[in-house]
Design a protein that fits this description.
This protein is an alpha+beta fold. The chain has 13 helices and 23 strands. A four-stranded mixed sheet has the order 21-22-1-23. A four-stranded mixed sheet has the order 2-15-17-16. A four-stranded mixed sheet has the order 4-5-3-14, with helices on one face. Strand 21, helix 12 and strand 22 form a beta-alpha-beta unit. The protein is globular and about 60 Å long. Shikimate-3-phosphate binds next to helix 6. The site of shikimate-3-phosphate (S3P) has 10 residues, from helix 6.
């Protein structure tokens, strides 16, 4: 959790305008470096997200003997010299996932397949997040995991090797849990199956076949993997599309600021990541798709956003996993939309980098919004504008900081957002891109 860093945001001085390309997808960047490290051969990855979360994942593999060459200063392109499924070396020190839940939860699956013992930790925020959801399944596959609160809290120590195939029926709709089990399944002695209560992002299922490892998805949603005992570096470059979770901040900002017209270039529109577009369209946003294409196994398109009268709505619980990271900024949209917005069945928001229901309720209320916290969501009644002069706390959570910077575009004065430095975990150039379309946001110490 990066503490410190104050953003000064809002109000917008005029319509937002422009065509922008946001950085690479965070989920896919993690997975690309993981699979490339475990493959036989050399993989080149382009469009990698150089956020702290993804750099932490790359560093873990460097710490386990994988050679990784950054191909540019921005760290958006890299060459990974894969060591094969069984080629990782015992790290000399603790592995550090920083702020990244995806890193530690997926790595739990990979480390469960290693005969050496390794210990993983993270920053103060990650050390509070629940790990039992991934520790329990890898234990039932035969790995040994120890840690605080019976392995629920980092640091955890993992060792394993040849694992037993299991059928894991997950209680939470979590792509991290599903992916952990599938990655552990690479080291199992038979077919590993996973069921989830609602479908979640399927990047692991889409990316493994690029590395020569088939994954089967049955009509009833059961996902299964029969391990090849080998991953192979793909022939061409692995291209990562632009991250819809980052693009969504600008989509909401453009919807909220009168007269805006912003195009988000070539962003991922995988249905399991596209919940934000369904929710925003149901709220009356003007979103049009242009130039639909495919990047690797992932569908992408330009999304053109024009400002429009947003209204409240009741979110379909089935859309929740598909928009899970976008709710902070969707709350910002709802706080400035006509009528009532209701979100239920989203208690997972409470175990992210912060408790995102209470973090957004506190921050938006401090800025004068009408938001009522519920155990599993919130009820928000929209107002015409937020209160300038508010001081809000992003609690070291990148998405709270960026969501409040967007909300502030419709305040009647500046809003100061404290503890916002964690933006660097997922979107290092957020402020520069926001300024490029005309958003009024700057770091306090920026001249
Ligand atoms: O698998 C992934 O890449 C992710 C899954 C989601 O977490 P959960 O699996 O905990 O829902 C999401 O919030 C996170 O940002 C990325
Ligand atoms: C929840 C998030 O990430 P992670 O779980 O990887 O920390 C996020 O980026 O919003």
């Amino acid at each position: 959790m990066e503490i410190g860093g104050t953003l000064i945001a809002g109000p917008a001085k005029g319509p937002l305008y422009g065509e922008i390309t946001v950085p690479g997808d965070k989920s896919m960047s993690h997975r690309s470096v993981m699979l490339a490290s475990l493959a036989d051969g050399i993989t080149e990855i382009h469009g990698f997200l150089p956020g702290d979360d993804n750099v932490a994942t790359a560093q873990m593999f460097i710490d386990m003997g994988v050679k990784i060459e950054w191909l540019n200063d921005k760290k958006t392109a890299l060459r990974v010299y894969g060591v094969g499924l069984h080629g990782l070396k015992k790290p000399e020190a603790m592995l550090d996932a920083g702020n990244a839940g995806t890193c530690v939860r997926l790595m739990t699956g990979i480390l469960a397949g290693q005969e050496f013992e390794s210990t993983v930790t993270g920053d103060a925020s990650l050390r509070k997040r629940p790990m039992k959801r991934v520790v329990d399944p890898v234990r039932s596959m035969g790995a040994t995991v120890t840690g605080n609160d019976d392995g629920n809290l980092l640091p955890i120590t993992i060792s394993g090797g040849k694992l037993n195939a299991i059928h894991h029926v997950s209680e939470v709709a979590s792509a991290q849990v599903k992916s952990c089990v599938l990655l552990a399944g690479l080291y199992a002695n038979g077919v590993t199956l996973v069921n989830e209560p609602k479908p979640t992002r399927d990047h692991t299922e889409r990316m493994l076949p690029l590395f020569g490892q088939p994954v089967d998805v049955a009509v009833d949603g059961t996902i299964s993997i029969f391990p090849n005992n080998r991953l192979t570096a793909p022939e061409g470059v692995v291209d990562i599309p632009a991250d819809p979770s980052s693009a969504c901040f600008f989509a909401v900002a453009a919807s909220l600021v009168d007269g805006s017209d912003v195009t988000l270039k070539s962003i991922g529109i995988n249905p399991r990541r596209d919940g934000w577009r369904r929710v925003m369209s149901d709220m009356g946003a003007s979103l049009t798709l242009e130039n639909e294409a495919k990047v690797g196994e992932e569908p992408v398109a330009d999304v053109r956003v024009r400002s429009g009268g947003l209204h409240g709505m009741h979110v379909d619980p089935n859309d929740v996993p598909d928009a899970i990271d976008e709710f902070p900024v969707i709350f910002a949209a709802a706080a400035l939309a006509d009528g009532e917005f209701v979100l239920e069945d989203a208690e997972e928001l409470r175990v992210k980098e912060s408790d995102r229901i209470s973090a957004m309720a506190d921050a938006l209320s401090a800025a004068g919004a009408d938001i009522e916290e519920r155990p599993d969501g919130a009820v928000i009644r929209g107002l015409a504008s937020l209160k300038g002069g508010a001081e809000v706390d992003a609690l070291g959570d990148h998405r709270i900081a960026m969501a409040m910077a967007v909300a502030a575009q419709r305040a009647d004065g500046e809003i100061r957002i404290h503890n916002a430095a964690a933006i660097a975990t997922s979107f290092p150039n957020f402020v520069a891109l926001a300024q490029s379309i005309g958003m009024n946001v700057r770091w306090q110490d920026e001249v």
